[in-house]
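Example 9 (inverse folding). The structure is encoded as follows.
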């Protein structure tokens, strides 16, 4: 008889307390681990976003400088103004080769003020189409360089910089450089893999 009140008064509540503590520990450990994973994922996403943005900004700055250098050539600007496609191609082709070899530039355009492509240095036989991409429209709207990542017709993402060609306040057309961004993505992935 003595055992029954001891079991009822001491052991059952003690077992209930232990069960509660075990369940509380399991639930706490689950939520702690879940929060830790959430914080890890959020941190990685922030890191990827920051690295990607930094690389894009770096490459945009590079292309801005390259465009400014190209536009310092009176011969190139004169050939474009004169609509001398053969001369413009002859002057720009060696530059494009150098830009491709040294800076991964894959696209090089000259476009007239109406946004009709005059010459693609990277595809000289393809021309005459109207350019309605966001970057070109922004350059037209603001009369200032514009940049952005756009999806090309072949499904590749290209970082583009488009700048208006201005002379004495008059719009002569646009120059555009672009690079496919696989190197940016693989650089970010490589950086994350080494951490």
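The amino acid assigned to each position is listed next.
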């Amino acid at each position: 008889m003595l055992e029954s009140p001891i079991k009822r008064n001491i052991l059952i509540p003690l077992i209930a307390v232990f069960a509660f503590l075990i369940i509380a520990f399991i639930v706490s450990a689950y939520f702690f681990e879940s929060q830790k994973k959430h914080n890890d994922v959020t941190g990685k996403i922030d890191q990827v976003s920051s690295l990607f943005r930094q690389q894009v900004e770096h490459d945009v700055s590079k292309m801005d400088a390259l465009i400014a250098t190209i536009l310092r050539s009176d011969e190139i600007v004169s050939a474009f103004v004169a609509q001398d496609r053969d001369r413009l191609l002859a002057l720009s082709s060696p530059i494009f080769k150098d830009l491709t070899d040294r800076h991964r530039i894959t696209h090089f355009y000259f476009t007239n003020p109406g946004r009709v492509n005059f010459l693609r240095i990277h595809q000289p036989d393809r021309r005459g189409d109207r350019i309605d991409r966001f970057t070109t429209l922004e350059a037209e709207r603001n009369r200032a360089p514009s940049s952005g990542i756009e999806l090309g017709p072949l499904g590749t993402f290209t970082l583009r910089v488009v700048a208006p060609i201005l002379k004495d306040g008059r719009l002569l057309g646009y120059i555009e450089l672009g690079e496919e961004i696989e190197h940016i993505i693989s650089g970010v992935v490589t950086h994350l893999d080494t951490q």
